[in-house]
Amino acid sequence: MISHDQYENYIAILREELVPAMGCTEPIAIAYASAKARETLGGEATHLHVSCSGNIIKNVKGVIVPNSGGQKGIEAAAILGAVGGDSSRELEVISGADDDARALTRKLVRENFCDVSLAEDVPNLFIEVTAESQNHKSLVRIENFHTNITLVKLDGKIICEHAPEKVRVDSQSTADKSMMTLRGIVEFADGLNVADVEEILARQVEYNVRISQEGLDNKWGACIGKTMIETWGDDVRTCACARAAAGSDARMSGCPLPVIINSGSGNQGITVTLPIVEYAERWRISRAKMFRALAVSNLVSIYIKHFIGSLSAFCGAVSAASGAGAGITYMAGGDYASIGRTITNTLANVGGIVCDGAKPSCAAKIASSVHAAILAHHMSMNYDEFRGGEGFVEDDVERTIKNMGYIGKIGMKETDREILNVMIDKVDVDSCL
To answer: Does domain 24-161 fall into CATH 3.30.1330?
Structure first.
């Protein structure tokens, strides 16, 4: 039986993780830091400098900055945040940017108003924006989490400073992910008073269904979701994959609609939501049980990603799809053992998908991962599973999850570095083969 403290901890995790964000979270985090730097400056900037980790560069290079009129890249994100952003809106910082801000951003990009450098020996998620005017200079640093401002300076004087490991610098957080276990997540869902999370999860369904429908109704990105439904039909398995992919189609290609994120990622937020909603509708699952399944889906994704970290060479669609598969199994009446088999079967299948940055092909990786999770669910309900000793799989699902975490966080470090080198043309691939 889950304790009161454990129950409240899971509620706190959901409240802190399931927040709205507009567009891919990495360019938005840059825009957020830039807006804060300009506001700290107290006037218009004459120049911006952005220093960021390789993972940020990787995830901003190929994605359209939302509400930018189709502009891409770190410079566009930083400048739009400075000229049209409102930092009080955090991950919706540039939702109010207008045509004038977009036009000014294009002009300033052409004029090299912003320059960018790679920060070495920093956390995977690291952004530092320096804004200069004629008389002043400000600096804003973000580390580890997309809204985690750890340092603000004006003219060399520290305005505020916080420890990088703090979950949110502006809250009295009680959430502790180290207390999470899969058994605890299942017990939490079983004992959940839905009223405690209904507002959070209802908003997640509303926002993420809306952007998914936008991806199906119109041409966004590579149209993965639309293609799947148009060519594979509309059975529940196809629609669960396609609706999740469609949300990413729109999001990765600059759709300004906000989503509710998971583990700091809009794509992961979409992936944990849409398959659950689709299966709940087809199976005529009650709203209360759907919310319990969404709690499982969200928390399993957060739990797996907790061991890996915010950004790595591990594709977050896999952890999110593992959560979705777990939620589907929960709705089907599966117990802890059944849910564990679903997660193990998913990780053993697609755990090796790599992240080569945020871009339209993320939608295809989501579709593949959700497809694997649905297969894993059906295997689990038939008591079929990949067993301990097969690769990194162990008999205990908790150990399998930690093994995947180690591979993603430690084992894939060099992979992550080489992916970035390829993306920024720092290696001569022909000479290496």
So the answer is: yes
Q: Is 268 exposed, middle or buried (0-12, 13-18, 19+ CB in 10 A)?
A: buried
Contact 143, 150 (CB under 8 A): yes
- What amino acid is encoded at 408 in this protein? G
354: tokens are 């790599």
Give φ, ψ of 426 to 5 degrees. -95, 0
Count the neighbouring beta carbons within 10 Å of the beta carbon of residue 418: 14
pTM over 0.85: yes
- Reading the block at residue 30, the tokens are 């840059």
Q: What are the sequence ranges of the domains in the chain? A: 24-161, 180-422
Residue with tokens 């973000």: 142
Adjacent-strand bridge partners of 392: none
Q: Are 136 and 46 in contact (CB under 8 A)?
A: no
118 SS3 class:
strand
C-beta separation of 274 from 224 below 8 A? no
The two tokens of residue 259 are 């989503």
- Locate 132 and state its tokens: 């200069």
Q: Determine contact, residues 357/265, Cβ cutoff 8 Å.
A: no
Q: What token pair was written down for 81?
A: 């945040």
List, in order, residues 6 or more apart from 131 with CB less than 8 Å away. 34, 37, 38, 40, 41, 45, 47, 48, 82, 137, 138, 139, 140
H/E stretch holding 246: helix 236-252
β-pairing verdict for 126-132 and 114-118: unpaired
Helix (H) / strand (E) element for 116: namely: strand 114-118
CA 29 to chain centre: 12
Of 169, 160, 151, 152, the closest CA to residue 90 belongs to 169
What is the phi/psi pair of residue 123, to 5°?
-60, 160
pLDDT average per 10 residues of sequence, the chain (433 residues): 94 94 87 96 92 88 87 94 94 92 96 92 92 94 91 94 58 77 98 97 98 97 96 96 97 91 94 98 98 98 92 91 98 98 98 90 97 98 97 96 95 86 75 75
